[in-house]
Specification:
The structure holds 2 protein chains of 2 kinds.
Chain A (H helix, E strand, L loop, with lengths): L1 H33 L4 E3 L22 E12 L13 E12 L2 E8 L4 E11 L2 E3 L6 E11 L16 E12 L4 E12 L10 E12 L4 E10 L11 E10 L2 E8 L6 H6 L11 E11 L6
Antiparallel strand pairs in A: 1-6, 2-3, 2-14, 3-4, 4-5, 5-7, 7-8, 8-9, 9-10, 10-11, 11-12, 12-13, 13-14
Chain B lengths: L1 H17 L3 E14 L4 E14 L4 E7 L4 E2 L2 H11 L7 E8 L11 E13 L2 E14 L2 E11 L18 E9 L2 E2 L1
Antiparallel strand pairs in B: 1-2, 1-9, 1-10, 2-3, 2-4, 3-5, 5-6, 6-7, 7-8, 8-9
The chains are: A mainly beta, B alpha+beta.
C-alpha cells in the first residue's frame, strides 16, 4: 500500500516535471501564434535594376545611388581586323537614385548618337505573401531621350522637339523560385520625328525576359523584345540579348551578347538592326556600383 | 486516508512548481556585428520572442531572419538572399537552460551573472552552445543580456573570396531582452 502511494507521488512529480519542460515551448508557440500576420515582400527578383539593356522590376533602395557604366563593343562579325568588335566601343554612364523604396529616378548619357536620357521607375504592386497576397510585381517606367547629334540637314527648319523620344513601359515580374524569375514588358515608344512620311511615330512592342540563377551569385539572363509588325520601323529587327550577372558585394557585373547597340529604350527596342544569324552581335558589359548616400529610413 | 494525504502532498508539490513564473516578451533585441578593416556590418532585430521560466531556468528565443535590419539596403538583401537564406530558413531559435537559475532572485532588484547552455539553430544547423550572460531584475521585471561570438562556418554560412575582407568569420551576437510580460 505504501509502495503504491509512493509510486503515485513519483508519477505525479514526473508529470509535473514533464509539463515544465514543455512549458517554455508552449509559451513560444503561443507567442508565435499571437504575432500579427505580416506581409512578406519578395525581394531580389533580379540582381539589379537592369536585365541586360532594359529595366527589371527591381529598384534601388531609398537613399542609394547606383552608378552604371555600360559598354557595347563593335560587331563580332567585324573579324580579326576589328579584333571582333573590340576596336570600337560605345558607352553609357548612368546615375540612378532611390528616392523611396518604390520610386527611383535616373539620368544617363550615351556616346551612341550623343544621347541624354532620363527616366523614373515606380513600383505599383509588390509581389508578396502572408497578410497581403500578390502574385506579381508591377512597375511603370517612362523614359525620355534627347538625341544631340547635329541635324542631318541644317538647311531645313529644325525643331528642338525633333530630338526627343519617349517610351512608356509596364513591367510585370514574378519571382517563381529563388532561382527563376520572369517578366513581361509591354512598351510604347513615341518618336517626334521620323525619317519617312510612312514611318510610324508610335511603336508598340512586348518584351519578355528572365533569369535563371546558376549559383548564389551568378545568373543567366535572357531578354527579347518583339515588335508588333504594324507598329515598327521598317528594317528594324527584334532585340535579343543573352548574358550573365555576376555579383560581388556592392558590384554587379553584367556580361552579355546582344544584337542591339543602343542602351536606352527607344534605341535598343525600336532601332536595332543587327541580325544574330548574320553575326551582327555586340559584346558588352554593364558595371553597377552602389553607394549609400543617406541612412535608410526605418 | 494515508493515501489521500499523499495525493494531496503531490498536488501541493505540483502547485509549488506551477507557481514558477514564466516571463516573456515579443520585442526582445538581438543584434549582430561583423567587424573587419574594410567594413563594419551591424543589424538589429527588435521583434525577438523570448521566454524565461524563473524556477526551471528554461530559456528560449525565436526570431524571424527577415526581421534583421541593416543601414544599407543592399546588405539586407544580400544577408537574406546569400547568407542566412531566409526563404529556405526563415527562423533562428535557441532552446536552453540558465544553469544557475537558483541564485537569481526574481523578487528583488539586482544583477546576476549566469551561464546558459542550449541548442542554437540557424541556417538549418543546430549546435550546442554555452554562453555567459546576466539577468538583471528591476521592479520585478527581468532583463536577460548576453554577448558572445559565433563562427559563421559552424552554421554552414560561407563567405565568397571576393568579400572575405568585408565580412568577419566570427560574428558578435548581442542579446538584450526585457521580459516585461508574465504568465
Amino acid at each position: 500500500m505504501l509502495l503504491k502511494n509512493i509510486f503515485i507521488v513519483i508519477i505525479s512529480c514526473a508529470l509535473v516535471n514533464t509539463a515544465l519542460a514543455q512549458d517554455s515551448t508552449d509559451i513560444m508557440k503561443m507567442l508565435e501564434n499571437d504575432l500579427e500576420p505580416t506581409t512578406d515582400y519578395t525581394t531580389a527578383t533580379f540582381k539589379t535594376s537592369r536585365l541586360i539593356n532594359g529595366h527589371t522590376v527591381e529598384n534601388v533602395g531609398k537613399g542609394v545611388m547606383d552608378v552604371k557604366i555600360s559598354h557595347r563593343f563593335g560587331k563580332i562579325n567585324g573579324g580579326g581586323y576589328e579584333l571582333f568588335g573590340l576596336d570600337n566601343a560605345t558607352m553609357r554612364m548612368g546615375f540612378d537614385f532611390g528616392i523611396t523604396d518604390y520610386l527611383m529616378v535616373g539620368v544617363g548619357r550615351s556616346t551612341y548618337q550623343k544621347t541624354y536620357d532620363a527616366f523614373f521607375k515606380v513600383k505599383l504592386l509588390r509581389q508578396s505573401k502572408g497578410k497581403r497576397n500578390m502574385p506579381i510585381t508591377l512597375s511603370y517606367v517612362p523614359t525620355i531621350a534627347l538625341k544631340t547629334l547635329k541635324f542631318e540637314d541644317p538647311a531645313r527648319k529644325n525643331y528642338f522637339s525633333s530630338r526627343l523620344y519617349y517610351s512608356h513601359q509596364l513591367i510585370i515580374g514574378r519571382k517563381f523560385s529563388e532561382q527563376t524569375s520572369l517578366q513581361l514588358m509591354p512598351t510604347y515608344i513615341h518618336r517626334n520625328l521620323v525619317a519617312l512620311i510612312l514611318d510610324p511615330n508610335d511603336l508598340l512592342s512586348i518584351g519578355i525576359g528572365g533569369r535563371q540563377k546558376l549559383s548564389k551569385r551568378i545568373s543567366l539572363n535572357v531578354e527579347y523584345y518583339y515588335q508588333i509588325p504594324e507598329y515598327k520601323l521598317p528594317n528594324s529587327t527584334n532585340s535579343l540579348s543573352v548574358g550573365f550577372d555576376i555579383e560581388t558585394g556592392g558590384h554587379v557585373f553584367q556580361l552579355h551578347f546582344t544584337n542591339s547597340q543602343g542602351m536606352n529604350e527607344r534605341s535598343f527596342i525600336s532601332e536595332t538592326t543587327g541580325d544574330w544569324s548574320k553575326g551582327d552581335i555586340f559584346f558588352g558589359f554593364n558595371i553597377s556600383r552602389v553607394f549609400t548616400l543617406g541612412k535608410k529610413g526605418k | 486516508m494515508k493515501r489521500s494525504f499523499l495525493v494531496a502532498a503531490a498536488i501541493v508539490l505540483s502547485a509549488t512548481f506551477a507557481q514558477a513564473q514564466r516571463f516573456y516578451t515579443k520585442n526582445g533585441l538581438v543584434s549582430f556585428f561583423s567587424s573587419t578593416n574594410m567594413e563594419n556590418i551591424k543589424a538589429d532585430n527588435n521583434q525577438v520572442l523570448c521566454t524565461v521560466n524563473s524556477t526551471s531556468g528554461d530559456l528560449q528565443f525565436s526570431l524571424m531572419n527577415k526581421g534583421f535590419h541593416f543601414a544599407k539596403a543592399l546588405m539586407e538583401e544580400h544577408f537574406n538572399e546569400n547568407y542566412i537564406e531566409s526563404t529556405k530558413f526563415p527562423k533562428s531559435t535557441f532552446k536552453g537552460t540558465i544553469a544557475d537559475i537558483s541564485k537569481v532572485n526574481f523578487t528583488a532588484d539586482g544583477t546576476y551573472t549566469v551561464s546558459v547552455t542550449g541548442d542554437l539553430t540557424m541556417h538549418g544547423v543546430t549546435k550546442s552552445v554555452t554562453v555567459p550572460g546576466t539577468v538583471t531584475v528591476k521592479s520585478g521585471k527581468p532583463t536577460v543580456v548576453s554577448k558572445f561570438m559565433l563562427k559563421l562556418a559552424d552554421y554552414g554560412i560561407t563567405i565568397p573570396g571576393a568579400v572575405k575582407k568585408n565580412i568577419s568569420e566570427s560574428i558578435e551576437i548581442t542579446v538584450n531582452c526585457l521580459l516585461d510580460q508574465k504568465l
